Amino acid sequence: MPKPIARRKTKKSVAKRFKVSANGKILYYGAGRRHLASSKNRKRMRRIGSVRLVDSSDQKRIEESLPFSHR
Questions:
Q1: I want to staple 20 with a disulfide (CB 3.0 to 4.6 A). Which of 27, 31, 68, 69 is the partner?
Q2: pLDDT tens digits for 12-48?
Q3: What is the SS3 assignment for 20?
Q4: pTM
Q5: Is-contact 52 32, C-beta < 8 A?
């Protein structure tokens, strides 16, 4: 019997936090909106909740955790 080919599994914690766009950019939502919102002003809350691009230094590590995302 031939050995099965080893495959990388998707890191589910990374898959829940990041999204790969059609152009291959990795996007995420800002942290800090879940609770203690009354002490944060509206402008800050809008800025926190916006979609952001992952920094280039972290991009390779996240892409390795998402082997089946089409880049």
A1: 69
A2: 999 999 999 999 999 999 899 889 999 999 999 999 9
A3: strand
A4: 0.76
A5: no
